[in-house]
Amino acid sequence: MKRRLALVLIAGIVAAGSAFAEEQKIGRPVRVVSIGFSPRPLEQVAPLVAREAARGTDLIVLPETFTGQTAPEALDGASVTAMAAIAKQHHTYIVCPIDRTDGGKRLNTAVLLDREGKITGLYNKVFPFWSEYDLKPGVDVGDEAPVFETDFGRLGMAICFDANYPEVWQRMADRGAELVAFSSAYSAGMSLQAHAINGRFYIVSSTMRADCFAWDISGELLLYEKSNDVNISRLTLDLDRCIFHQDFNMNKHDKLLKEHADDVMQDRWLDREAWFVLKAKRPGVSARALAHEYGMEELRDYITRSRYEIDVKRGWPFAEKVRREQEAASKAKHAAGK
Asked: Do residues 279 and 182 both lie within one domain?
């Protein structure tokens, strides 16, 4: 029996149900489907994906190495080939995570397929889990956290154990990610919330636990759903929504909302954090573009610029000094243990 727990905190952001309703395109909506399940044969997964794709969506996200991690396959193998055919037939993007062989390497890879079924991006898990090194051959490490341009926005991808390492998520934030698809063996939960808060992007998960978390750009929980066998979560996210710090923005905020009362609204006011979120009110309007016209600086840009300028005043990057101190402490500890 399916057990479902859904929490929707922001009106108009999440649309869940038996089918996506027809709606006017206010802002920049992207329809996302997360399909979560324990590893199973491709012939069981493909019909699930095809059925959801046929309903109409922009992005389907599958769990980490969704057919298992016992038989690595190349990019032209059965899994990517089957998902590519579905992506092309139903004109949707698919995040297809596989146990991949590439020459002499074995990689835990999320393959991004575009609406024509073409491979448009690869993310190799930067932090494989310990048991992956014991496989024969062992899983090699990825060394990049790219962000991919799609027709709906800038998409990042992360996998499972990556949830424990903020540098992966910071790299995606620095590269302008608006949405991160997280494919995993486990749920990760509040670890993802922390990354959504610090990265100021949406995160949608698909896991072997047959559940789905969706986190807002403010770090607030948009959706949690779980099933006993296969979980299918459907939601719509507005990638035009934008978040700001109150610092230096309030006069511009007031002027914008006064002069464009029919175009833009304040969607969230987070008083304790000193943040606010803007979104468009009608089709054809971009809240982000209007905010930029009024000289407003988004929260992620503000924090990044502040960090850089404070480091310049300091004369050295604080983060780099911390890293060096940690390395020195680690070397001293190992030396003392010899």
From this structure: no
Burial 53-80 (b: 16+ CB within 10 A, else e): beeebbbbbbbbbbbebeebbebebbbb
Residue 306 lies in a domain: no
Average pLDDT on 16-35 reads: 73
Residue 319 has what pLDDT? 78
Q: 187 exposed, middle or buried (CB, 10 Å; 0-12, 13-18, 19+)?
A: buried
> What single letter denotes the amino acid at residue 276?
F
In a 3-state reduction of DSSP, which class is residue 71? coil
Domain range for 255? 242-297
How far is the CA of 279 from the CAs of 9, 10, 83, 194, in angstroms?
Answer: 15, 12, 34, 23
Q: Are residues 253 and 179 in the same domain?
A: no
Q: Is residue 6 included in any domain, yes or no?
A: no
Domain-located, residue 326: no
pTM of the model: 0.90
Sheet holding 264-270, edge to edge: 242-245, 275-280, 264-270
Would you tell me how many other CB atoms lie within 10 Å of the CB of residue 206?
A: 30
Q: Are residues 205 and 266 in the same domain?
A: no
Using the 8-state DSSP alphabet, how is residue 17 labeled? S
**Which pLDDT tens digit goes with each residue over 268-312?**
999 999 999 999 999 999 999 999 999 999 999 999 999 999 999
Q: Encode pLDDT of 155-178 as tens digits.
A: 999 999 999 999 999 999 999 999
Q: φ, ψ for residue 180 (rounded to 5)?
A: -120, 125
